[in-house]
Amino acid sequence: MRGIFFLLIVGLVGGATLVGLGVWQLQRLAWKEAILADIDARIGAAPVPLPAAPDPVADRYLPVEVSGEIEPGEIQVLVSIKRVGPGLRIIAPFTTEDGRRILLDRGFVEIPEKETERLLGPMTVTGNLHWPQETDSFTPEPDPVSDTWFARDVPMMAASLQTEPVLLVARSRTGPGIRPLPVDSAAVPNDHLQYAITWFSLALIWAGMTVYFLWRGRAGAERES
């Protein structure tokens, strides 16, 4: 009986712990969904002029409208989008009417359009400020042969194109053949529902194993008696 009592305690404590972790993940899910809703509302708000000193934290996703000129020279970042396949993000220098030089993410072109000349010159662009975190220790350096980048690194791109470390991701069209890839909240990870399901599933498995071992222990005790 002592062994059965021990199994029961372990089963209850383990099951309660797993259920508690599942409930915690549901709470985290509600918290993350509130954050995503706030991000979506911020992204879709009315555009404002470019701040004098954009802050990577406070001004992330800020909707902005600027007028100026798209300048020659561009960075091509390798990307892939669903139902289309691989292509390139086109990052160009943009000089505003008041003389500031920033980065403009014009959008997506397919690989065959790599060498196509793109529209330059005066333009008004609506988009969102963004400082994407796409690089890690495994991200390759830009390929000097194909002149292809593998992630958007704002400081590196700014140094390469001699601009402020400010990236405006266009949501308006910036020329024929270029598909805007506007900022959205899809890139913000939200796996809490999957984690909750995992913990609750483990709790069910734990409960089943506890019942099985209790049954075996009781059956063994009855045989011995």
Can you walk through the features of this model?
Helix 1 packs antiparallel against helix 3. The chain has 2 domains: 73 residues; 121 residues, no CATH class. The chain has a 5-stranded mixed beta barrel with strand order 1-3-4-7-5. The termini are close together. The protein is built from 3 helices and 7 strands. The chain is elongated and about 90 Å long. With 225 residues, the protein is of the alpha+beta class. Strand 2 and strand 3 form a beta hairpin. This is SURF1-like protein. It holds the Pfam family SURF1. Its main location: membrane. It is found in: Cell membrane; Membrane. Belongs to the SURF1 family.
Give the helix level as a range of percent: 25-40%
Give the overall form.
elongated
How many strands? 7
The overall pLDDT average reads: 88
The first-to-last residue Cα distance is 12 Å
Q: Beta fraction of the residues?
A: 15-25%
Q: Stretches where pLDDT falls below 50 for ≥5 residues?
A: none
Alpha carbon gyration radius: 27 Å
Number of domains: 2
Secondary-structure element series: HEEEEEEHEH
Major sheet strand order: 1-3-4-7-5
Largest sheet: 5 strands, mixed, barrel
Main structural class: alpha+beta
Count of separate DSSP helical elements: 3
